[in-house]
């Protein structure tokens, strides 16, 4: 009888322990943008779950773009169907956090970060990296992906046109001159697919590289109007008239570049691995820094996203913090860089234990790090109409590049429509 009692007691303890273990299990609902980015989100989540067996990561169907994800979050904020973790595009972060804050639906990561050892914080995140996830001085998120526009080019076509693949033009006038020489009846000189880009990242690239800011100091007016903005639109028109840029969609431009029928192609470094693999041995593909007309004040918009916690349950918030620390850590950032091409958002990621050997063997992936000093925050417009503003700006930019709208009329329309939507 005593033996039976001991067996029953042991079984009861085992059941209690098992139940307690299950009770500690947490499943996090996670939403990110761009289905193709499953190539790094999935392996990162798998590695995290291996190290944290009591936390399960469940990905919702990815949003088609940052803009689409943003609209989804705004709708689900109203219906209280938000995910536990969301990766917000930097340019929409302020607008989203302002909306979620009103309903207390986003977690301030500042106290969580402050609770970590100071030495750990300094070893992993610089002030600049942390600032990418801040809204009104609050640490709303941690930067997960970061990128600035990157130049890809066909070294053989550049050399054939008299250019030097080891020293590509560093300003738009010289780049256009080279593109004009590359251009033939069946080969495009270059492509800068701003006319069909899903957000205003490439537009801001043109605005900031020339030394301007996007908005006035009081954020009531745009700062790129007049002759400055007219020059930008004239340059964009010249891409077509002089550089032979075909006004086709981004994917078609990419295919033309991969086929060896385009000399220079601008894209996010996030697709560097994909393009590298598709080019294969067709030609020697290289990367170069984005052309900057104003070397003293020129900047570039930092694309990418920050991971936010929108979970309400304390246990989920705690688990989500562990997840965010991991995805912005050196191990996860190594996966991101090697599978895509982004700039790492962790200070330790470049160490020999992580990306050091990879960068040594893959110069094209290392190029983007040369633009870190020019990286500027990619902020949205005041007024809550950032998505709509770009869609209207893009319509005008496309019209100018097609030759249907003059650059002067185009910038006047962009300024007036943008400022009207900012109010």
TrEMBL record:
It comes from the Bacteria. The keyword Signal applies. InterPro entries: Bact_solute-bd_prot1 (IPR050490), SBP (IPR006059). Keywords: Periplasm, Signal. It is found in: Periplasm. It comes from Bosea caraganae. Residues 1-23 form the signal peptide. Belongs to the bacterial solute-binding protein 1 family. Its main location: periplasm. This is ABC transporter substrate-binding protein.
